[in-house]
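Field log, afternoon session.

UNIT: design team B
ACTIVITY: writing a sequence onto a fixed backbone
BACKBONE:
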């Protein structure tokens, strides 16, 4: 016999079974089960993330639509009075968009551009009239300052669920 190899490798005949194959099979089965459960959890998490991203995207698009609708409302020749009704406010501190209840219809103006698909609630907006700015050029008459009016437009969009809310803001110069 070869003295470098253990002698039990060369024994021929009946050996007492020790069950090493069964134990190894159970360990491998346990490892594969843990891997399968982990893979399922990762898949569920990725599905939730994709759904949340979709909801946020819908909310962003709804808020963008309301923002453009509000800016279009500022293009009329004569603006209505900014008296705190219908989403039209004078600028105050704290800013109105931070303190109003966006769920009360009298506080906001509703998006009027048509139906939006997959939103949990219609987008809304408010317009705050900022202090006018004198000067800035543009007048052809010397010495007569031109008044420039600015408006802060804030829109709020809701996604496919009420948990996905996006607020956008722009300043409109008129």
């Amino acid at each position: 016999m070869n003295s470098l190899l253990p002698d039990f490798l060369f024994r021929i005949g009946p050996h007492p079974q020790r069950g090493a194959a069964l134990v190894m099979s159970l360990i491998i089965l346990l490892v594969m089960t843990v891997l399968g459960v982990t893979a399922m959890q990762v898949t569920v998490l990725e599905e939730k993330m994709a759904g949340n991203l979709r909801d946020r995207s819908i909310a962003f698009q709804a808020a963008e639509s309301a923002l453009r609708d509000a800016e279009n409302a500022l293009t009329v020749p004569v603006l209505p009075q900014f008296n705190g009704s219908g989403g039209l406010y004078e600028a105050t501190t704290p800013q109105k968009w931070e303190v109003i209840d966006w769920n009360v219809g009298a506080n906001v103006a509703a998006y009027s551009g048509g139906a939006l698909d997959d939103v949990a609630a219609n987008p809304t907006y408010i317009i705050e009239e900022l202090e006018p700015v004198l000067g800035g050029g543009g007048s052809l008459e010397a010495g007569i300052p031109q008044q420039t009016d600015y408006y802060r437009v804030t829109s709020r969009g809701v996604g496919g669920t009420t948990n996905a809310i996006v607020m956008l803001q722009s300043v409109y110069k008129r």
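LOG NOTE: DSSP finds two helices and seven strands in the chain.
NEXT ACTIVITY: expression trials, pending approval
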